[in-house]
Amino acid sequence: MIVNYSGIVSVLASVTGTLLGSPLGSWIASWSIPAVLIFSSITSFAACATRFIMKQDISQASCVEEEASQDVENESQENQEKQTELENKADSKSADNQSTIKKSANPSLKSKIMLLAGSLLVAFIPACSVSYILLGLGKQYGSKSLTILYIFSGVGSVLASVLYAHSSQKLGLRKIAVLGIVVSLLAYCFMFSSLLPIMWVAFFLESIGGMLLVEPIIVARQILFKGSALAKFSGWARLAFAIGATSGSWIGFAFSSTFQWHLLPILALIFTAGLLVVLPQLPNTSYVD
Questions:
Q1: Which of 49, 85, 170, 201 is the most buried (most CB within 10 A)?
Q2: How confident is the model over 48-76, as a mean pLDDT?
Q3: Which string of b and e fits 194-216 if b means at least 16 CB within 10 Å?
Q4: Cα–Cα distance measured from residue 132 to residue 25, given in angstroms and rounded to the nearest whole number
Q5: How many other β-carbons are positioned within 10 Å of the β-carbon of residue 34?
């Protein structure tokens, strides 16, 4: 249920971000870059605040889900008594579920730190590179050239959301995240070129890779944490995301002001590779209804 719901949310988020966020950000950037940074900081921390405000609701929803899961398990156990032929398979699946529940009940400190680092990095990486590469391309080719880039980026974002919604249950979160890292690294390598057609491909791939990285990290904490622990950790994870977006924007601004914008993919490649340390904390199982 969590994986299905996250897929629907990712599609809505990609469409909303493409139709509203990108044009609004471009309009503000044409007026003042510091204004974009301030606006981004305010909205990031406002989004973080909503997580803390909804803390009680998240906790209650998680508890309801736990009760529903328990009812399903009880019904499954009754069916096992009647169907002896399926007993071995059911026992094996039950053991896997119990193992996952035990891990979910009390994630280690290392898991918590790595998941928070993942939330920070998935916001930091595009904030420190993509926006300023777009500004550099706008200066080099003119603002009208950015329209096609936004189209490719938007199509990639929506396509990635649909891909995640249809494949995450079969592949599992860790494999989806690995695919996201590979696609993102390839995209940032293409961004070293200043040729506009190659940049179209680069931004298309970056949108796909970014979406395939963000969603597994979000869903992982929803699976590993339950009840009040989920509500509390979600607030901290959103704070880490806001810090990553804000710090990435300012660091990217300082880097692009000091060096050429063509070097910004170096930052993105380094920190994207850093996401490899987060992978072991993501569930490696598939979720098929």
A1: 201
A2: 52
A3: eeeeebbbbbbbbbbbbbbbbbb
A4: 12
A5: 10
Q: Which amino acid is at 122?
A: V
**Helix 145-171 and helix 109-141, axial crossing angle in degrees, nearest 10:** 160
Which run of H or E residues covers position 195?
Answer: none
For 249-284, how does the pLDDT look when each residue is reduced to its tens digit (9 = 90+)? Answer: 889 888 888 888 888 999 999 999 999 999 888 887
What DSSP string runs through 206-248? HHHHHHHHHHHHHHHHHHH--HHHHHHHHHHHHHHHHHHHHHH
Integer Cα distance of 121 and 243 in angstroms = 10
CA-closest candidate to residue 39, choices 240, 246, 239, 210? 246
**Residue pair 273/185 in contact by the 8 Å Cβ criterion:** yes
Alpha-carbon span 182 to 276, nearest angstrom: 10
Q: pLDDT tens digits, residue range 184-220?
A: 999 999 999 878 899 999 999 999 999 899 888 888 8
At residue 16 the predicted structure's pLDDT band, cuts being 50, 70 and 90, is: low
Distance of CA 243 to the CA centre of its chain: 15
